Amino acid sequence: MASPPSERVRVRRLPKRGAYDRQTIDAILDEGLVCHLGFVVDGEPRVIPTGYARDGDRLLLHGSRSSAAMRVLAGGGPACATVTLLDGLVLARSAFHHSMNYRSVVVLGTGVEVVDVAEKLEALRVLTDHLVPGRSADARGASASELALTTVVALPLDEASAKVRVGGPVDDAADHDLPVWAGVIPLALGHRSPIPDTEVPPGGPAPTYVTSYRRP
Ligand SMILES: Cc1cc2nc3c(=O)[nH]c(=O)nc-3n(C[C@H](O)[C@H](O)[C@H](O)COP(=O)(O)OP(=O)(O)OC[C@H]3O[C@@H](n4cnc5c(N)ncnc54)[C@H](O)[C@@H]3O)c2cc1C
């Protein structure tokens, strides 16, 4: 098993569930859509949900130039991004041992603002395609004014941990004979049939990346 890249990302509570290899970390990041971004404003913590995309060895984040998160990260303030995939509710025989199955990643580091225009446009393309692969080829790209209003920040993935819980409940032996159902209710983020916007010309087929959209 890969070792933690730093002491502060070493999983201490239930360390067997921790992983630090990029294959595990990348798979979670590539499946997730939302991260919770932690940073400090005037000495106080903030945790803001936001979109992201992995681009090789870094996490890309974007937002309004005036957003607190972007200001802090673009200014080199310390940050923590977490991504959580919820896979199931674990029902134990005792209330104490109820749990959840999950795959999660914590990334610690400092952001670097992406300022080069070509690199920024490419980062926005990656962010769009992370939501729906193939979409950036159709959608109008950012105009100069949209680009000026948007901050893009890259958070390196060199200090990250994953933690994964799988399987059923871990009950105390003394509880195994209790007449209480125990097991897992699997959960997954799904999708439903696409709903065309009212301005879409009738009869026009939706692109394949919409009609064949699937969650991993
Ligand atoms: C959906 C979900 C529900 C959870 N519910 C609970 C709960 O109800 N109660 C509870 O105590 N814990 C819960 N956990 C586990 C929780 O995330 C922490 O792992 C745990 O609380 C230990 O916290 P700690 O600060 O002692 O971690 P430590 O092991 O001391 O953390 C040290 C380092 O390990 C890494 N790390 C810790 N947790 C995670 C993680 N989840 N994913 C990736 N890296 C991690 C980080 O880099 C962190 O800096 C839940 C996790 C998930 C994803």
Largest sheet: 7 strands, antiparallel
Q: Which CATH C-level class is it?
A: Mainly Beta
Number of domains: 1
How large is the radius of gyration? 21 Å
Task: Provide a descriptive summary of the structure in words.
There is one protein chain. This protein has helices at residues 22-31, 68-74, 117-131, 144-149, 208-211, and strands spanning 18-19, 34-41, 44-51, 53-55, 58-64, 78-91, 99-110, 112-113, 150-156, 160-165, 183-186. By secondary structure, the chain is of the alpha+beta class. Strands 1, 2, 3, 6, 7, 10 and 11 form a seven-stranded antiparallel beta sheet that branches. The protein has a four-stranded antiparallel beta sheet with strand order 4-5-9-8, sandwiched between helices.
Main traits of this protein?
216 residues, alpha+beta, Pnp Oxidase, Chain A, 7-stranded antiparallel sheet, 4-stranded antiparallel sheet, 5 helices, binds flavin-adenine dinucleotide
Brief characterization of the structure:
A hairpin with a 2-residue loop joins strand 4 (53-55) and strand 5 (58-64). The protein has helices spanning 22-31, 68-74, 117-131, 144-149, 208-211; strands at 18-19, 34-41, 44-51, 53-55, 58-64, 78-91, 99-110, 112-113, 150-156, 160-165, 183-186. The chain has five helices and eleven strands; from the N terminus they run E-H-E-E-E-E-H-E-E-E-H-H-E-E-E-H.
